[in-house]
Amino acid sequence: MPSEKLQIFYTGATGYIGGAVLQLILQHPTASTFAITALVRDAAKAQLLESKFGVKSVVGSLQDFDKLTELAENAYIVVHTADATDEAALKAILAGLKRRHEKTGDVPHLIHTSGAGVVADDARGAYLASHIYSDLDVAALDALPPTAPAHAADLLLVKADEDGYARTYIIKPGYVYGTPSGPLYDAGIAKKTTIMLPWLADVFARRGRAGVLGGGKNVWACVHVHDNAGLYYRLFSKILEDPSRLGHGREGYYFSENGECTLYDMCKAVGEALVAVGVATEAEPNILSPEECDKYFGKYGALEAVRMFFANVRCRADRARRDLGWAPTHTPDEVLKTAREIVDAVVEKQGLKTKA
């Protein structure tokens, strides 16, 4: 490694996942040797990141392709946590890494946030799938269609790695849950809320009762936000220590999970919380009709959202456990315990009447 500061480009610093990862990187034993530059949309948060945490911040978005290319070109490591499906932004980042390689001859590293939804089926809650994907089963991952969720972006990374101008690592979390804590959250910089359970809580609060498709027999792999951040941190640390021993490119998929939950259990937990606050009278989820899916999930992209939530997303983070020594500690029962806090926030936001 060169003697000057290690140049790192970071996207998603203000996000739910990205904030948890960044605050760990800032605590790395050699963090004083890092020069981190973050692309941030919010000017006030950018100023806070720079003044309180020493992270140089450039105000901009993933649509600022020239900025993405320039910032990536200047970085030895890129940590991209902002958007798993934005292929245009990813192409701009890869263009910068390619330009760097052509100018300097070094091979920069790109850690990309994708999603375990790539293995989602079309169960619509009707069954529990028997197959569980391992991130060590490269042949099974190669067989996934380019149309699988976020996979087109994954394939751009695999191609960049094959072309030799970057080493790429694709982290695929399951449902990331939990209320994150730490300095970036305390400072109001990073987002504290996840997606799936809050969306379900929003729909079920408006509906007045929890619901499921097909019995909710499908399952989702789950990972706590801080366990997930620990995986990124271990991968980042290994890149600094000895990247030659890390799987990358088509052998660089890293699922992030520690167990799984059925959608029935998740929906019922929301239902119980709605009963507890007086918004619903029945905790047991009943069947969502197609018309209700259109009505209540409409703002989330109705059919696409419903199919994803009620799909089987079964995977194992074998590569991270084997190669990174990753040992997550939070278990899936904790997913259900988050329902009450999520429901409280939703009913307050919707202005619903609750028990005194």
UniProtKB/TrEMBL annotation:
Residues 12-120 form the NAD(P)-binding domain. One of its GO terms (molecular function) is aldehyde dehydrogenase (NAD+) activity. This is NAD-P-binding protein. InterPro entries: NAD(P)-bd_dom, NAD(P)-bd_dom_sf, NAD(P)-dependent_oxidoreduct. It comes from Polyporus arcularius HHB13444. GO terms for cellular component: cytoplasm.
